[in-house]
User: What shape does this take?
Amino acid sequence: MRKKEDFYESAQKLFQPTFGNRPMQYIGRDGVIEQFMAGLKEPVGSRNRCTLFLGQRGMGKTALLLELNDRAQKEGYVVARVTAHEGMPKAIIEQLQLNGSKYFDDEKKKLSGVTAGALGFSFGLTFSEAAERQYGFRSKMSLLCDKLAEKGKGALILIDEVRTSTAMREVAAAYQELIGDRKDIAIAMAGLPYSISNLLNDSVLTFLNRAVKVELGPLSTNLIRAYYERAFKSIKIKVSDDILDRAALSTRGFPYLMQLIGYYMIQYTPKDGVVTDEIMDKAKKAALADMDDNVFKPILNSLSDNDKVFLKALAHCGEPATTSRLQSKLGRKGPAIQPYRKRLIEAGVIESPRRGELVFAVPYLSEYLQNMD
Ligand SMILES: Nc1ncnc2c1ncn2[C@@H]1O[C@H](COP(=O)(O)OP(=O)(O)OP(=O)(O)O)[C@@H](O)[C@H]1O
Ligand SMILES: [Mg+2]
Assistant: This one.
């Protein structure tokens, strides 16, 4: 019989409901990944080599960038993965040097004596003192791209939590210049729909308008169900087909929620035990409580009071809500609705599946709003 610690150790790895981690098993999004990976094989500067992934909190932006990181490495790319903070340009350079250095190990050995390195470099990917001092981000990137190309490598920049900033402008401008010089470089960015819409108004970043924009939607619940089945089996927890269906459907394809529900199902089920309906109910309740704190509250905090009034009215309309029904709930006439509708669609909080109809884009947000008052 397995020791208790072993059980919890392996169980813990299966579901990790935190943000920014690498899931034990990456589920779905094959099309999105393939499209970006195919872009890396296209000529330098082609549109697919500059992609912007948009998604709500917990929709799996960071996890996707981590997945692209691994796949691109296998395809011969040296990857710099950063968040869009002020020190980003420097961090990109450092990451490329760090992650690319293993391809230059032989040079390090050869140059252990004092020998002149390639132009701008002292050895491997380490800049000469003069280059380090004199060159800015763009020139350093250019040198690094050339050096990596000698080993048949390209450079991929992954930027998480994209937003308007001086650093972002610098990187965007450099990217354009580098592809102008035919350097083998590609860029994938991820961010909340709202931050991106502000960012796209920034004239310096018009190149982002040309980036391929990919909205990250829910995962397939069939794939989630299959993962749940395998995961529970691997730790000998028994789950009926009905409960597997319930668990998968309860996630509504939302990656963070799929981690939470799986996690709590294990937490509430004894070792070698059976998941009952009661355990499933309890797990779902606990998962949704975490969603309140980590998804719904942050989304609502970023909105105005009037946006919230609009959303509450929408929640009480039932889905899909027609514009006319929403108007009567709000007690307002016509055009007043339009600015909220537009902004909240841009913010990725609601969407319009058909003309004149609105639904929530974030699972369970409607229920959360209904229960608020
Ligand atoms: N395709 C996937 N398969 C399995 N798990 C996933 C997948 N995508 C995301 N997850 C998991 O869901 C959780 C949330 O994902 P992630 O942190 O990537 O969200 P995010 O969109 O970056 O959120 P935020 O906007 O708050 O940064 C993490 O635990 C992550 O491991
Ligand atoms: Mg993230």
Notes: Residues 19-20, 61-62, 160 surround magnesium ion (ligand 2) (CB under 6 Å). The first strand starts at residue 50 and ends at 54. Residues 163 and 196 are 6 Å apart (CA to CA). DSSP finds 18 helices and ten strands in the chain.
